[in-house]
Task: inverse folding
């Protein structure tokens, strides 16, 4: 066995271990430690935190909400992002660049600034859109947005849509434009071409986009923290609160590790499924 | 009135004229090739017939009906694309049955016709594979079967053999000709390969800069080229003492135009010579009969029959 490649990759491996593996291992270890209001963290091996996370329905509800939001965000991104990518792909030179910039726009703005923008538009009676709609008499009470799941879903979809658009666009660029013409000469109408020819070929792109969007939505912190606040917690804001407010680090570690494990399982499972499903067709 | 009529067909892209007043009548069952260098307008002509490009002016009539008034999806033409354009997410059978599904042909009838067509193109045993699991030649056959299964009024072939290697291309030419004879579909082939056009067609249309320079049977176009362009595009031609002579019509003789052999290339079944004469370089092609041939630097005399 040659040792040179291993030796050469050693520095990178050490750095990776130092900044990822070790802290992760410490977090896992931390989740098995004890904690008390007055005694602080006690480095023993107990299952107390894990038992609490799995038995208390408060945590179950929190995780269920996290994945429900992530799933809705993924669905919305696919429903709006895939057609957006298709239209973008058919656009010509100056427009394509312009609209690509519009789509990527949200990524160029700090997540905090962008989310505060949503809060300015919809926050209570004084939010711009609510104020306008109220004064026009179109609504009798401000549209609920802050501290609602709908608000989190809308704002997260806004942020994460570009990832879906880019993934689908990449898939569409591999598509031979003559394939659509071939379907047309065989008698297919525009809708049939979209449904039977374009969509199935865009599917691997939609699915890989969905994996990215789902993972980012489930682990998002800033958006749910600003819009959901302390009233509507998700897994990541819960872990944050345990660490920095309650100071119950071991419990926060258990929540964080559980979120990580669940995400890894879901993402890997989805990836495996996509690869197996489309290996024969696209390779 | 011919089966398919192109009347003064013209297409301009901005300042560029791609097809310039093309007149062509194609009879039912005929195999016609549009032959020319790239940019001569042959592909644009095909795309106008298929309906992907709208003519600037002129008319296309199929069985005396205005074809331009019919949507591309309703024209009932079979097209084989240069890239084959197979549906990558469908198996061979699904690819071929797609057109029949669109026509609303019922399941049993559909399966029967798909099976027959796949047999016709020699793909009976690859039915459940996806396109990327097939070789180039097999993909080509699937594309042909997909176009033929709908029993098209016209079969349009856009450089269908250009992605195959030389040997396979020759095999497919023979097979394509046989299949076309069997089904009797009126066929229009677009190609830049003069050998392919001559091998397959009843008539060829030699195109240059958007115009048809000559329309006629391959033998006639080769033997009696209407313009210098046709003469130089269909095979090689020498201009010796002001007359055009095909290289294979020139032989080495005891007397005649004197010259020196500059290069001699062996090509298996024939020898290719460049002979320097007082009238410039002359290309000579001689069959390889096993006889000893003049070497480079040798002084030779060239003779040919006028005509």
Result:
């Amino acid at each position: 066995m040659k040792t040179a490649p291993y030796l050469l990759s050693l520095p990178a491996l050490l750095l990776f271990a130092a900044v990822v593996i070790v802290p992760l291992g410490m977090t896992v270890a931390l989740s098995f430690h004890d904690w008390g209001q007055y005694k602080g963290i006690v480095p023993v091996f107990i299952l107390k935190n894990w038992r609490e996370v799995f038995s208390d329905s408060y945590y179950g509800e929190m995780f269920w909400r996290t994945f429900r939001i992530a799933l809705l965000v993924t669905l919305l991104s696919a429903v709006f992002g895939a057609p957006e990518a298709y239209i973008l792909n058919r656009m010509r030179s100056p427009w394509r660049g312009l609209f690509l910039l519009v789509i990527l726009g949200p990524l160029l703005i700090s997540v905090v600034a962008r989310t505060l923008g949503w809060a300015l538009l919809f926050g209570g009676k004084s939010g711009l859109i609510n104020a306008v709609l109220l004064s026009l008499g179109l609504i009798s009470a401000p549209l609920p947005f802050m501290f609602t799941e709908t608000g989190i879903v809308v704002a997260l979809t806004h942020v994460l849509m570009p990832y879906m658009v880019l993934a689908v666009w990449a898939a569409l660029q591999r598509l031979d434009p003559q394939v659509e013409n071939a379907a047309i000469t065989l008698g297919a109408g525009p809708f049939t071409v979209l449904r039977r020819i374009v969509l199935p070929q865009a599917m691997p792109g939609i699915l890989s986009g969905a994996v990215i969007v789902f993972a980012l939505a489930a682990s998002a912190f800033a958006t749910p923290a600003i819009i959901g606040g302390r009233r509507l917690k998700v897994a990541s804001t819960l872990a944050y609160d345990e660490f920095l407010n309650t100071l119950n680090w071991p419990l926060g570690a258990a929540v964080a590790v559980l979120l990580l494990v669940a995400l890894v399982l879901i993402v890997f499972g989805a990836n495996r499924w996509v690869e197996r499903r489309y290996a024969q067709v696209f390779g | 009135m011919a089966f398919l009529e192109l009347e003064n067909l013209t297409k301009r892209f901005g300042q560029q004229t791609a097809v310039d007043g093309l007149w062509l009548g194609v009879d039912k069952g005929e195999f016609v090739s549009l032959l020319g260098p790239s940019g001569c307008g042959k592909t644009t002509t095909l795309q106008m017939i298929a309906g992907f490009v709208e003519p600037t002016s002129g008319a296309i009539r199929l069985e005396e009906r205005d074809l331009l008034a019919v949507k591309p999806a309703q024209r009932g033409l079979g097209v084989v694309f240069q890239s084959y354009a197979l549906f990558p997410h469908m198996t061979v059978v699904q690819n071929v049955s797609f057109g029949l599904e669109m026509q609303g042909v019922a399941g049993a009838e559909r399966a029967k016709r798909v099976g027959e067509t796949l047999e016709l193109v020699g793909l009976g045993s690859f039915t459940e594979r996806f396109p990327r699991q097939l070789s180039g030649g097999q993909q080509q056959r699937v594309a042909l079967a997909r176009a033929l299964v709908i029993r098209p009024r016209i079969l349009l072939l856009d450089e269908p053999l250009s992605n195959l290697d030389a040997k396979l291309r020759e095999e497919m030419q023979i097979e394509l000709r046989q299949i076309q004879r069997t089904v009797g579909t009126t066929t229009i082939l677009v190609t830049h390969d003069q050998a392919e056009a001559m091998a397959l067609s009843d008539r060829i249309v030699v195109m240059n800069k958007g115009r048809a320079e000559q329309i006629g049977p391959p033998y006639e176009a080769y033997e009696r080229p209407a313009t210098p362009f046709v003469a130089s595009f269909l095979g090689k031609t020498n201009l010796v003492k002001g007359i055009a002579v095909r290289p294979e019509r020139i032989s080495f003789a005891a007397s005649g135009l004197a010259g020196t052999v500059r290069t001699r290339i062996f090509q298996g079944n024939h020898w290719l010579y460049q002979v320097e004469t007082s009238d410039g370089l002359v290309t000579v092609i001689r069959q390889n009969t096993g006889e000893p041939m003049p070497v480079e630097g040798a002084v030779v005399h060239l003779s040919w029959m006028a005509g």
Notes: Residues 166-183 of chain B form the longest helix (18 residues). Chain B touches chain A at residues 50-52, 72-79, 81-83, 85-89, 98-99, 102-103, 130, 132-133, 146-147, 150 (CB under 8 Å). The two ends of chain B are 35 Å apart (CA to CA). Chain B has a mean pLDDT of 92.
